[in-house]
Design brief:
The chain folds into three domains: 124 residues, Alpha-Beta Plaits, CATH 3.30.70; 114 residues, Translation factors (Elongation Factor Tu (Ef-tu), domain 3); 142 residues, 3-Layer(aba) Sandwich (Rossmann fold). The protein has ten helices and 15 strands. The strands form four sheets. It has a six-stranded antiparallel beta sheet with strand order 8-7-10-5-6-9. Strands 13-12-11-14-15 form a five-stranded parallel beta sheet, sandwiched between helices. The protein has a two-stranded antiparallel sheet with strand order 1-4. The chain is α/β, with parallel strands linked by helices. 21% of the residues lie in helices and 22% in strands. It is globular. Bound molecules: adenosine-2'-5'-diphosphate. Adenosine-2'-5'-diphosphate binds next to β12 and α9. The site of adenosine-2'-5'-diphosphate has 14 residues, from β12 and α9.
Length: 416
C-alpha cells in the first residue's frame, strides 16, 4: 500500500531577464546571499531565498518582483535560470494543479513557502522609500522589446584632454515622444551588436544628469555623464562596450533608450528641504540634476540649503568643475576632495566631511535634510563611517539617527 506523498509547494522567487538592467542592486541588498549572476542573468537560489523581500523595493525596474509556484523538488535551478531570455510562464508545472489549494494563488510578492510575513530585515544601509514629498516617478515606460530612439544633440568631453579620465557630457533628445524623468532616476542604453555568445548586449544603466524640465529648460531632452571604461576593477585592459559606444557618438546619431528607472533615489519637493550630496566621479550626475533643479526653483523661492562633497583624482578630472565654481556660494556649499594632486596629500570625500564636521552635524540635526551618496562602491563605507563619527561627536546618536534617516527616505545610497 502506498503511504501519503509529501508534496511541498514553493513560491519561487525569480528575476525577469527581459526587464532586469543588471545593476547589481538586488545582489548587494540580499542579506543572505541568495542572489548571484553571470554575464547573462541575475538569478535567485531557491534553497537560500527566504522571501524576506529586502531586495524588492531597491530594484529600480521591478524585474525582481516575480514569483512562480512550483513543487519544491522541481524548483528552477540557478543553472537553468542563467540561460533564460524570458521567464517561464506560470501554469506549466505540476505544482499549478496544486497551487490554488496549497499556496493561496497569489503570484505577486508572496515570498517562499516559509511564510515571510513578519520578517524584519534592516540590513539595507540606505532608504528603500523616497522622500515623502518627492514627485511620483514614471518607470519602465520603454523596455527592451519596445525601446525609444533618441537623437544625440550634444557630446563633449568634461575632463581635461591631458588626463586619463575621459568623461563625457552627452545630451539625448526625444523629439515629440514623452520621456518623463525626475532627478535621481536613471535610464538604460541598448548598445548595438552582440556579445561573444551571440546574444544582444544587455542594457547599461546611467544616471540622468539633467533636471525634470530638460537639460535645456523646456526641452524634451536629458543629459548623461559617461566615463569611458578602459580597464576593469583589477586594472586589466578592457574596453567598456556601452561607454565607448556612447563616448564616440556624434551629433545626429541615434541610440536606443529604455526606462526611466528608479523610484526611491529622488529629491524632496518641499522648498525648505536641505540636500547633503556626496559623490565621486560620474556619481555627480544625479547631484548635477538635483542642483540644477534647485537652482531653477530657487528663482521661484526654494530656500533649503545645499552642501556638496565631490571627490576626483585631480581638479582636471572632476566633471563640471568650472560650472560648479560658478554657482553662488550662498546657493551651494561646495567641497572638493582631490586624491592625486601632485605634491598634495590624498583626500577623499569622507576626509573633507570630517573637516566640515560642525556644518555637516548641523544638517544632520535638521529633519528636513536629505542625504545622497553616489559613486564608487568603496566610498560607501567611508562616508557612512564619517557620518557616524560626526553624528556621535555632536551628540546625535547614530544608532538611532541612521534607522530614522532610512525609514524617512532621507539617506539614499547608489554606489557601483
Ligand atoms: P583614488 O585616487 O584613490 O583612486 P575615479 O576617478 O576612479 O572614478 O575615482 C574618483 C575619486 O574617488 C578618486 O579621487 C578616487 O581616489 C576616489 N576614491 C577611490 N576609492 C575611494 C573610497 N574608498 N572612498 C572615497 N573615495 C574614493
Amino acid at each position: 500500500m502506498n503511504g501519503p506523498v509529501s508534496i511541498e509547494v514553493l513560491k519561487q522567487h525569480l528575476i525577469d531577464p527581459e526587464i532586469c538592467i543588471r545593476c547589481n542592486t538586488c545582489e548587494e541588498t540580499c542579506p543572505i546571499d541568495a542572489i548571484t549572476h553571470d554575464d547573462n542573468n541575475y538569478v535567485v537560489r531557491a534553497d537560500v531565498c527566504n522571501g524576506c523581500m529586502a531586495c524588492i523595493s531597491p530594484c529600480p525596474t521591478g524585474a525582481i518582483d516575480n514569483w512562480r509556484t512550483v513543487l519544491r523538488a522541481e524548483a528552477y535551478s540557478i543553472d537553468e535560470q542563467l540561460t533564460w531570455d524570458v521567464l517561464p510562464a506560470q501554469g506549466t508545472t505540476a505544482a499549478d494543479a496544486l497551487r490554488a489549494g496549497q499556496a493561496g494563488g497569489n503570484d505577486a510578492g508572496a515570498g517562499a513557502a516559509a511564510e515571510p510575513a513578519g520578517i524584519e530585515v534592516d540590513t539595507v544601509r540606505g532608504s528603500t522609500v523616497p522622500p515623502w514629498s518627492a514627485a511620483k516617478p514614471y518607470v519602465n515606460l520603454y523596455t527592451h522589446k519596445a525601446p525609444l530612439r533618441a537623437t544625440v544633440v550634444g557630446n563633449y568631453r568634461l575632463t581635461e584632454a591631458s588626463t586619463e579620465s575621459d568623461i563625457h557630457h552627452i545630451v539625448l533628445d526625444f523629439g515629440t515622444t514623452p520621456f518623463p524623468v525626475l532627478e535621481g532616476q536613471s535610464l538604460g542604453i541598448l548598445p548595438p551588436g552582440t556579445a561573444p555568445d551571440g546574444r544582444a548586449h544587455h542594457a547599461r544603466q546611467y544616471s540622468i544628469a539633467s533636471p525634470r524640465d530638460g537639460e535645456r529648460k523646456g526641452y524634451n531632452n536629458v543629459s548623461l555623464t559617461v566615463k569611458r571604461v578602459t580597464q576593469d576593477y583589477q586594472g586589466k585592459r578592457v574596453d567598456g562596450v556601452c561607454s565607448n559606444y556612447l563616448c564616440d557618438l556624434k551629433k545626429g546619431d541615434t541610440v536606443e533608450v529604455i526606462g526611466p528607472f528608479g523610484n526611491t533615489f529622488l529629491m524632496p519637493n518641499h522648498a525648505d528641504s536641505h540636500l547633503l550630496m556626496i559623490c565621486t566621479g560620474t556619481g555627480s550626475a544625479p547631484m548635477r540634476a538635483m542642483t540644477e533643479y534647485r537652482r531653477r526653483r530657487r528663482l521661484k523661492g526654494a530656500t533649503g540649503k545645499l552642501m556638496l562633497f565631490f571627490g576626483a583624482r585631480t581638479q582636471e578630472e572632476l566633471p563640471y568643475f568650472g560650472p560648479l565654481l560658478n554657482l553662488p556660494k550662498d546657493f551651494i556649499d561646495t567641497n572638493f576632495a582631490f586624491s592625486r594632486t601632485p605634491g598634495q596629500p590624498k583626500r577623499y570625500v569622507q576626509d573633507v566631511m570630517r573637516e566640515r564636521a560642525a556644518d555637516v552635524a548641523q544638517m544632520l540635526r535638521d529633519d528636513s535634510t536629505y542625504i545622497y551618496v553616489c559613486g564608487l562602491k568603496g566610498m560607501e563605507d567611508g562616508v557612512l563611517q564619517a557620518l557616524q563619527a560626526i553624528a556621535d561627536q555632536h551628540g546625535l546618536a547614530w544608532e538611532t539617527l541612521w534607522p530614522k534617516l532610512k525609514r524617512d527616505g532621507r539617506l539614499h545610497l547608489e554606489t557601483y
